[in-house]
Amino acid sequence: MARKESITMQLILDTAFAMTRQEGFANVTARKVAAQAGCSTQPIFRVYKNMDELWDAVYDRAAAFFQDYYGLYPRMGKAPFVNLGMAYIAFAREEKHLFELLFASDQENRKSMYELLNGANGNVVSEINLAKAAGCPDPGDLFMKMWIFIHGAACMTLTGDYDLSEVQTLALLERSYEAFAAAHR
């Protein structure tokens, strides 16, 4: 009877993903993953052709994790783009290393920021449609203005320069939306 493999592709991916969340993507090396998984590097290269393939899998897992995070984030604001902003800023605060991987690094052959944000459910498109329904004549431009503001706030969390509470952030995003929307009227 053949021996059952104890070091599986799933275990390696779970280990590499957990390491990315805790230590950052740059620290995911074959030796470190092997040490964390309690094996040599040989099982890693038995199930993955090379580290690029494992890194791609970690990236895809991080992108799916963000989509799940956004889908579960409670809707707090009524204004378009506010909830997307709240979730994005909270994700940067709570999942610093995943945020850096997805939204603040130069990764080749990866999804664009828009693709990550829009996701399979059309998150951005839904928000743009809400702005259009609210009477905004150019919701795409309004989204861009809001997004520059939102992304800046999220990036500030990475450096510790953003310390507003959730309530303060919600109020700030709602006021920003109103100010940008007023400029489009």
Description:
The protein is mostly helical and about 180 residues long. The protein folds into two domains: about 1-50, Arc Repressor Mutant, subunit A, CATH 1.10.10; about 65-185. It is built from ten helices and no strands. The chain has helices spanning about 10-25, 30-35, 40-45, 50-70, 80-95, 95-105, 115-120, 125-135, 140-160, 165-185. Helix 5 packs parallel to helix 9 (about 140-160) and helix 5 packs antiparallel against helix 10 (about 165-185). The longest helix has 22 residues, at about 50-70. The radius of gyration is 20 Å and the shape is elongated.
Estimated helix fraction: 55-70%
On the 0 to 100 scale, the average pLDDT is 92
* Rg, nearest Å: 20 Å
What best-fitting shape do the alpha-carbon axes yield? elongated
Termini Cα gap = 74 Å
Q: Strand fraction band?
A: under 5%
Largest sheet: none
Can you count the helices? 10
**Domain count:** 2
Helix and strand content put the structural class at mainly alpha
Number of strands: 0
Order of helices and strands: HHHHHHHHHH
Low-pLDDT ranges: none
